[in-house]
Amino acid sequence: MSLKIVDKPAGAPVHKRNPGYPLDLDWVERVRMNRSALERRANTIGARRTVKKDYQLAWLLRAITLLDLTTLNSDDTPGRVERLCAKARNPLRRDILEQLGMEGRIIRPGAVCVYHAFVKTAVGALEGTSIPVAAVSTGFPHGLAPLETRLGEIEASVQDGAQEIDIVIERGMVLRGDWQGLYDSVRAFRKACGAAHIKTILGTGELATQTNVAKASLVCMLAGADFIKTSTGKEKVNANLVTSLTMIRMIRWFAEETGIEIGYKPAGGIAKAADALRYMALMKEELGTHWLQPHLFRFGASSLLTDIERQLEHGLTGRYAADYRQPMV
Ligand SMILES: O=C[C@H](O)COP(=O)(O)O
């Protein structure tokens, strides 16, 4: 079986990082989203078979490479983080890899995502792999600590070896329409990240309207975000296809205006392989398969890999494995 995991055509241009742009308030004011039109469009995703059966296994393998393998629990321990990193090193059971004809091939997730307190542990446990550690910094999940504290947390995470920083925005700034405040804070976060890539978590379930989600997406991209991310996983409403459509369309608009490609990270509540395929289909239809690469798309998910492994096994054998065969951590 030949499975193409990541499109990297020889001579493909190197990804250009978002340098950030001045805040264009006229552009922000022009942004409007029509929720019912978005809902109609989102309903078409998954209404028919999302991915042809023959390609499903390849898409599920691709999904693993797009995964920020995450543990963000208040009772996380170094031991749990180490087990998650061991899973990141070998995301699929050997027998599944063999049946796929993929033994000897390296399949790795996009990153391992942890709280700041566990960055050092994760960096140590992933040594010798190319898997980056992502830290949720800036007072995750609410983002309401003093600005200096949040900036200090970013610097500490980078110092400990995080190569990606998932920051949270202050939702109140969006609700008040304080676009300058949002822009200035994200700009400061981006500066504190230095070479580490910055993913801006919008907390979309708390932003009240799709127009707010769209405007916040734009302001974060203007401020230099490398990724825009939906949710912390702790809000009452987390990632969904309607909000994804809003954010993806802002990414498209931003790319048309600036030539800069921003990554997209749906996160929170994505636990089923079938959901992952729907998000991937949405990306493919709205932005093209080019966007389904780890530097442009990630799932933020704590349990998705378990179901992907289950569905891969089912696709190969027609049977589901018992849960104990696929423990997560
Ligand atoms: O950023 C990642 C999310 O916190 C993961 O959420 P989840 O536990 O619902 O998959």
UniProtKB/TrEMBL annotation:
Annotated source species: Devosia honganensis
InterPro entries for the chain: Aldolase_TIM, DeoC, DeoC/FbaB/LacD_aldolase
Annotated family: Belongs to the DeoC/FbaB aldolase family. DeoC type 2 subfamily.
PANTHER family on file: DEOXYRIBOSE-PHOSPHATE ALDOLASE
Catalytic reaction(s) noted: 2-deoxy-D-ribose 5-phosphate = D-glyceraldehyde 3-phosphate + acetaldehyde
Pathway assignment: Carbohydrate degradation; 2-deoxy-D-ribose 1-phosphate degradation; D-glyceraldehyde 3-phosphate and acetaldehyde from 2-deoxy-alpha-D-ribose 1-phosphate: step 2/2
Name of the protein: Deoxyribose-phosphate aldolase
Enzyme nomenclature, EC number: 4.1.2.4
Leader peptide range in chain numbering: none
Lineage: Bacteria, Pseudomonadati, Pseudomonadota, Alphaproteobacteria, Hyphomicrobiales
Keywords per UniProt: Lyase, Schiff base
Gene: deoC
Pfam families, A to Z: DeoC (PF01791)
NCBIfam families per record: deoC
GO molecular function: deoxyribose-phosphate aldolase activity
Name of the top EC class for this enzyme: lyase
